[in-house]
Write a structure and sequence with these properties.
This protein has 421 residues and is of the alpha/beta class. The chain has two domains: 6-240, Rossmann fold, CATH 3.40.50.10840; 246-420, Molybdenum Cofactor Biosythetic Enzyme, Chain A (3-Layer(aba) Sandwich). 37% of the residues lie in helices and 22% in strands. The protein is built from 14 helices and 18 strands. Strands 9-10-5-11-4-1-3-2-16-17-18-15-12-14-13 form a 15-stranded mixed beta sheet, with helices on both faces. Strands 6-7-8 form a three-stranded antiparallel beta sheet, with no helix packed on it. A hairpin with a 5-residue loop joins β17 (385-391) and β18 (397-403). α10 packs parallel to α12 (329-350). The relative contact order is 0.15. The model has no long low-confidence stretch (mean pLDDT 93).
């Protein structure tokens, strides 16, 4: 393997492809590993993204997984470490962003790092330390209703401070606007004042590009995927279409959606309005003992030769809350994940070779069920979501797109398959 320049740790699978996508667009050859690699990489890579499923597990478990990924990345030559979390800063008062960040800092023996989920291409901006989703604060964006990590506070300094032992400060937009030297100067001041982490404002891609050079040589960077656009130049890498080349697609097409975000709900409705076949999965029916996965596969089998099909558990906030009240939050989520993962396995056995999965937890369950160990990152569909290519344990190829619930235009599903052709 060529010398790895950037070693990345992502706290969920869709977030990992989001980060990898931005690195590829900036010219890096990227391999994404599902979990800590246990064998040699299949292709040359300037950056390796280790995709964990650690966003919603207990904090101690998230720390252990992240440190294991760090050890592999450093042993394989990573010059800089990037801890990637969601652009909506999904977390709870206990973590896992703060605990993982501080554990990585301790392991790397570094006294300071930055944190920002800003991703202007997907309308995530940070101003005076507050996270905005489009024109509204995070706490008014729908994320306050997230079933696992409800975000009711938009002040990221306050949110991260609640999870961290060290002091959390701010590098505001006025400093960022003045560029690299001003940012480095502010970092020096914050360190002298005893701060160990700083939230960074960013309103535009230009802000992220100004931030990039200031992060050169920083042992650990923590961020959403947006900061990635400004890092490859630090390693002498420029954008190139060669970085996103994938093998030609084959086989049937399918979508599996477990996300209940507003964006995914719109995408599901747009797919249905287009007249394409779609089947809703009822968690209560799964809990009652029906073999819903087998029913879904029987439904899909005659339809697949005609075009893409959609199997979804996506529902509105009221329906999700009602289901959680009847089954319990964790049980409801686990039931849906297991069912959709089984359906994804079955669809691939039926001949699906172009599979789109919506929702971070769903994507994690599906990828693990399919036995995917590594993915080569290809072209962007929409900001934050690329097509990927994996070799299955059977030796067959599979094109995969793992979509964060909040990402993508309303016509995302149709657009994705059109791009791949």
């Amino acid at each position: 393997m060529a010398a790895m320049k950037l070693g990345c740790i992502a706290d969920d699978f869709t977030g990992a492809t989001d980060l990898a996508n931005n690195l590829v667009r900036a010219g890096m050859r990227v391999t994404q590993s599902i979990g800590v690699p246990t064998c040699a990489l299949h292709s040359e890579a300037d950056a390796v993204v280790v995709a964990l499923k650690s966003r919603t597990v207990p904090a101690a478990e998230a720390v252990d997984q992240s440190l294991a990924a760090l050890r592999w990345l450093k042993a394989n030559g990573a010059e800089q470490i990037y801890f990637k979390y969601c652009s909506t800063f999904d977390s709870t008062p206990q973590g896992n962003i703060g605990p993982v960040t501080e554990a990585l800092m301790q392991a790397l023996n570094t006294r300071f790092t930055i944190a920002t989920p800003a991703f202007p291409d997907n309308k995530r901006t940070v101003f005076k330390g507050h996270l905005f989703i489009g024109e509204v604060l995070l706490s008014e964006s729908g994320m306050q209703n997230h079933p696992l990590t409800p975000m009711t506070d938009s002040n990221l300094v306050r949110v991260l401070q609640a999870q961290s032992r060290g002091k959390v400060g701010l590098i505001d937009h006025l400093v960022v606007a003045r560029g690299e030297l001003a940012i480095r100067g502010r970092i020096g001041v914050l360190q002298a004042q005893g701060f160990s982490i700083a939230i960074v404002d960013a309103l535009t891609n230009e802000d992220l590009m100004r931030l990039g050079p200031a992060l050169k040589g920083m042992a650990l960077v923590t961020a959403g995927s947006g900061v990635a656009i400004g890092l490859p130049p630090n390693f002498g890498i420029e954008p190139s279409s060669r970085a996103s080349h994938l093998p030609l697609p084959a086989g049937w097409q399918a979508v599996v959606s477990g996300s209940c975000s507003l964006a995914t709900s719109q995408q599901v409705q747009e797919f249905i309005r287009s007249g394409a076949p779609a089947l809703a999965i009822d968690p209560l029916r799964v809990a009652s003992g029906f073999d819903v996965a087998a029913e879904a596969l029987d439904w899909a089998r005659p339809l697949l030769p005609r075009g893409p099909v959609l199997v979804y558990s996506t529902a509105d906030a009221g329906t999700v809350k009602s289901t959680q009240q009847q089954l319990g939050v964790e049980e409801a989520g686990a039931l849906v994940e297991r069912t959709l993962a089984g359906i994804a396995q079955g669809l691939v056995k039926l001949g699906v070779r172009q599979l789109l999965v919506a929702g971070g937890e769903t994507a994690g369950a599906c990828v693990q069920a399919l036995g995917v160990a590594q993915m080569q990152i290809g072209p962007q569909i929409d900001p934050g979501v690329p097509w990927c290519y994996a070799v299955l344990p059977t030796g067959e190829g599979l094109h995969l797109a793992l979509k964060s619930g909040n990402f993508g235009a309303p016509n995302f599903f149709g657009k994705a398959f059109g791009l791949l052709q």
